[in-house]
Amino acid sequence: MSKNITKRAEDYSKWYNELVVKADLAENSGVRGCMVIKPYGYAIWEKMQAELDKKFKETGHQNAYFPLFIPKSYFSKEASHVDGFAKECAVVTHYRLRTAADGKTIEVDPDAKLEEELIVRPTSETIIWDTYRKWIESYRDLPILINQWANVVRWEMRTRLFLRTSEFLWQEGHTAHATQSEAVQEAELMLNIYSDFAENFMAMPVVRGFKSANERFAGAIETYCIEALMQDGKALQAGTSHFLGQNFAKAFDVKFTSQEGKQEYVWATSWGVSTRLMGALVMTHSDDNGLVLPPNLAPIQVVIIPIHKTEEQLEEIKAAVKIITDQFKKLNISFKYDDRTTFKPGWKFNEYELKGVPVRIAVGPKDLENGTFEVARRDTLTKEVVAKDGIVTYVQDLLEEIQNSLFQKALEYRDAHITEVNSFEEFKEVLEGKAGFVSAHWDGTVETEEKIKDLTKATIRCIPLDQVLEDGVCVLTGQPSKGRVLFAKSY
Questions:
Q1: How many CA atoms lie within 13 A of 169 on its CB side?
Q2: What pLDDT, in 10s, does the model give residues 115-139?
Q3: What is the pTM of this model?
C-alpha cells in the first residue's frame, strides 16, 4: 500500500488534508463546505462521545434533544448573540418545491413561503431558553443540567475537514441555576472535564484560561477555554465553557420564585466541544507515515497480522492468536485479527501504520516454533520480540506506555513553544520564526488587541487561569499591564 502523503515540513496544510482522506477519516461531500465522516473516523468520534457522555452523566447532567430550526424572532431577543452569529446563519424561507412549467425543472414554490423564517441552528441557546421558560417556576426546579448531542450549521466561507465545516457535530450543554456562584462553578467544572479529557484521552496538553472580551462567545459574560498547540506552531481552541450570567434569562423572561418568595432571573451556562477535536487529534500526534492515535481513543488498539504460506500454517497461527485475543477481550483491549488473503502482510503493515493503530503483532511459523511474537509500536516505529507467555501483559503495559509517551512528547513540544517577549519586535520575530504561544504583556484594550491582530494575524488565545500577576508594559503601546497573556496564530 503506497501512502504518498506530502511531508509535514513541505506543506503542513496539504499534509493534513491528504492524511484525513487517505486514512479514511472523512472526505468532502457534494455540498460545499460539508463533509462525509467515514466509518473509521466516526469510530474515533464515537469513542470521544462515549467518554465525554460518561463524564457528563457522572456530574449529574442528562441528555435531551431540541429542534434543528429556530424562529428568526428568537434571535432578535439577545442582541449581542444574534450579532455574533448573523453572518453564519442559514435561513429557511419556504417549505415546498414544485415542478416548473417545463415539467423538468424543480423550483421553490412561491406559494409555500413560511410566515416566519427559520434559522438552521448555529447554536441552541435561543430555542433552549424559550423552552426553559416553560420548565422553571420555582427554586425547586433548579438546577437544570442538560446536554444535547447534535449537528449545527455555520455557513463558513473557508472550510477544512473537521477543523472548519459548514455543518459539524458537537455536544452543547445548557444549564440553569438559582445563583451566580452555582453557574460560575458549573462553567469551571465543565472546563475541567474538557481539560481532563483532552489530556488523559487525547494525550493533548492544553492551557486552561478565559477569553478576552473580543474573543468571548456572543452573549457570554465570561468564556473559559482550553487551548492546544499543533505541530506547526498554531493554536487550536479545543473546547469552551461560557458563564452567560442572566442575559438569556432576561431576554426570554425566565424567572423563578426563590426560597424567600421573590421573583428572580435564573443564571445560565453553556459549553461545548465538536468534531474539531478530530482535527486536533490528527495534528497533535501524527507524522509523515500517517496517523498516530493514542490508545485510549484508537478504534483498534492492536492489530494482529498472520504471515503464512499454507492454509495449515494459517490455521496454526489462528489457534495461537485466539488464546491471546480471548484475554484481550477480558481486558477490554480492542483488536483486529486481519487474516485476509487478498493482501500481502507488507500491504497490511502500511495500511495500519497509516491508520495509526498503536500496536501491531506479526505472527509467522517461526514465531510459533520459537514461542514468540513480533510486536511493533506505531508511535516510535520500533519492534520487539516478545515471549508468547508474557504477550498479553506486555501489550497491556505497552498501550499505557504509548498513551503516556504521546502526552509527554506533545507537552515537551508545547512547553518549548511558549516564549516570553518584552517588545513588539521580539513578538513578531518569535511569531514568524519559532511560532507557538507568545507570552506578552497587553494593556487590556480591545483596540490594542485588534491592532496586533491586524499587524500579525495573531490573537489572544487565552488569559491563563494560573496567570501570575506582574507589573509590566504592553508590547505594542507601552501602557501599564498587570500580567502576560498568550498570543498565537490559530486555526
A1: 16
A2: 999 999 999 999 999 999 999 999 9
A3: 0.95
